[in-house]
Automatic annotation (TrEMBL):
Belongs to the glycosyl hydrolase 13 family. Keywords: Hydrolase. SMART domains: Aamy (SM00642). GO terms for molecular function: hydrolase activity. This is Glycoside hydrolase family 13 protein.
């Protein structure tokens, strides 16, 4: 049987609002994406994952949906979507959509009807409405991932659950109408021709709603996603019943030929994560471990070993990511001193301490060569191929992310519209005023400025992706025990020997022809550098 396309794919995440703006209104759109698809084929990726483009009041970057079967008018129409899909397929690019089953927008027809209906009504049962412990006390201590209580009181005194913003009420997955609705949504987009789905907040759909509701021990909300020690039977995260949903979805995926795929966004640790990709369930699960470690060979070694072993234990491949639309961009993170929390750093507008972007870029170049040499799928986030740093100094008045508080500046800084050209209004993004302002030096990061410059981040990505095609089908991986010590990470992929030096001194470089190096090599492998060698 041929290897399914996704096992070792490179998937490029598109945030449509910030990718390219064809209408010129400052908001990226689907025609804009279509017009720039050649950038993705030129880069050499296999697929794109489109974050939500559905009808939405856009409180949480489109993760608050009012109609899962329509395109948001700011982004285009269904016809624009079909054109984008056809153009992507014509170029051999697969397309994954985001499906958001944990919650809807509070403007969704279902929620409006639920609010208008009485407590205990079937309308309310599609969501999670409960009486408080007292008139002014919520039903439990569950906290929203965006801060504060996960419960909001309605005008008749009942409370509704939202693990994210109050504008994102949680659905009740014990209600068969919710299951049917999502089965319909998957088939709707499957019939249009998409290749699969990224599943938002995949671990949290089923809640234990038996009364009285149980508090989370330690008072943690979603922040404690991987702290199951205090909550072995967590009331709303990673409950066993959630897997029945994915077994059903997998049956739906197999109504299509070739079958669709599902990628779980589940912020849970390895041994729990692999349960989502057991045979009969989903195909892949995001692996966020590289986002938790910071430039130390020993940590990367542990993450690589554990992730590969976990995926293999269920016959799947691992996934890898250095960036996404929820986290501070890696170029900035890797330029911060160890011990500085990037989110805390952001609250200083990136001034305390300043990020060393030269160092961060050098390390990010090495890091992507590590990622692209590993077996399994790599998920890239738009702009990382340009080496974009976090825009840490966005002024307060332009920030829109609901995940914001005195302690958290939010996620806007990694979502600034892309620069395509050296100059011009919005550096080729589209109209004169993008929805988030671009820094003045953005033109230096543009595709135009980097294309053809052998030292640029873009050309490094292109070269790495081209070379990767030669070995990506071969899933073999083995550590090079002699060299894989201290600050040097060393392993073999087929004929290729991969070395990454996270230390501060030059390491020995074995004989072999250099396929690619993240920085110029000296008489050895310099600090903060990766190399791919072919042994002679
Ligand atoms: O994120 C799920 C999630 O748990 C996030 O809160 C994540 O932990 C956090 O952003 C890390 O800083 C998904 C989407 O990726 C995110 O953009 C949405 O806001 C969220 O779901 C709600 O739909």
């Amino acid at each position: 049987m041929p290897t399914p396309w996704w096992r070792n794919a490179v998937v490029y995440q598109v945030l449509p609002r910030s990718f390219a703006d064809a209408s010129g209104d400052g908001i990226g759109d689907l025609p804009g994406l279509t017009s720039k698809l050649d950038h993705l084929t030129d880069l050499g990726v296999d697929a794109l994952w489109l974050t939500p483009c559905y009808r939405s009041p856009w409180t949480d970057a489109g993760y608050d949906i009012t109609d899962h079967r329509k395109v948001d008018p700011a982004l285009g129409t269904l016809a624009d979507f079909d054109r984008m899909l056809a153009e992507a397929h014509a170029r051999g690019l697969r397309v994954l959509l985001d499906v958001v089953p944990n919650h809807t927008s509070d403007q969704h027809e279902w929620f409006r009807r639920a609010l208008a209906a009485t407590p205990g009504s079937p309308e309310r049962d599609r969501y999670v409405f409960k009486d408080g412990r007292a008139p002014d006390r919520p039903p439990s201590n569950w906290e929203s991932r965006f801060g504060g209580s996960a419960w909001t009181r309605t005008s008749d005194g009942q409370w509704y659950l939202h693990l994210f913003a109050p504008e994102q009420p949680d659905l009740n997955w014990r209600d068969p109408r919710v299951r049917e609705e999502f089965a319909g949504i998957l088939r709707f987009w499957g019939d249009r021709g998409v290749d699969g789905f990224r599943i938002d907040v995949a671990a949290a759909l089923v809640k234990d709603l038996r009364e009285p509701l149980r508090d989370v021990v330690g008072g943690e909300g979603c922040e404690g996603l991987d702290d199951f020690a205090a909550n072995p039977d967590h009331p709303f995260l990673d409950r066993p019943e959630v897997h029945e949903i994915y077994r059903e979805w997998n049956r739906i995926f197999h109504e299509f030929d070739p079958p669709l795929i599902g990628v779980a966004e589940a912020w849970v640790r390895g041994d729990r994560r692999v349960r989502y990709i057991r045979p009969g369930e989903l195909q892949q699960a995001f692996n966020f471990e590289f986002l938790r470690v910071r430039w130390r060979a020993a940590d990367y070694r542990r993450v690589v070993a554990e992730s590969i072993a976990a995926a293999r234990s269920v016959g799947r491949t691992a996934t890898w990511a250095l960036n996404n639309h929820d986290v501070v961009r890696q170029v900035s993170v890797l330029g911060l001193p160890r011990g500085v929390d990037p989110r805390v750093w952001l609250t200083t507008n990136g001034t305390d301490p300043p990020a060393d972007l030269e160092l961060g870029t050098r390390r990010a170049r090495a890091a992507i060569m590590l990622v692209l040499a590993l077996p399994g799928s790599a998920y890239l986030y738009q702009g990382e191929e340009l080496g974009l740093p976090e825009v840490a100094d966005l002024p307060a008045q332009v920030l829109g992310d609901p995940k914001r508080s005195g302690k958290d500046k939010g996620r806007d800084g990694c979502r600034v519209p892309l620069p395509w050209t050296r100059g011009g209004p919005s550096f080729g993004f589209g109209g004169p005023r993008p929805w988030l302002p671009q820094p003045r030096d953005w033109g230096d990061y543009s595709v135009e400025a980097q294309r053809g410059d052998p030292d640029s981040m873009l050309e490094l990505y292109r070269s790495a992706l081209r070379l990767r095609r030669e070995f990506s089908g071969n899933e073999s991986f083995s550590w090079d025990d002699d060299r894989n010590v201290g600050d040097v990470l060393a392993f073999r992929r087929g004929e290729v020997l991969v070395l990454v030096n996270t230390g501060s001194t030059t390491a020995p470089l074995p004989a072999g022809s250099v396929l690619l190096a993240s920085s110029p090599l000296e008489d050895g492998l310099p600090a903060d550098t990766a190399v791919w060698l072919r042994r002679e």
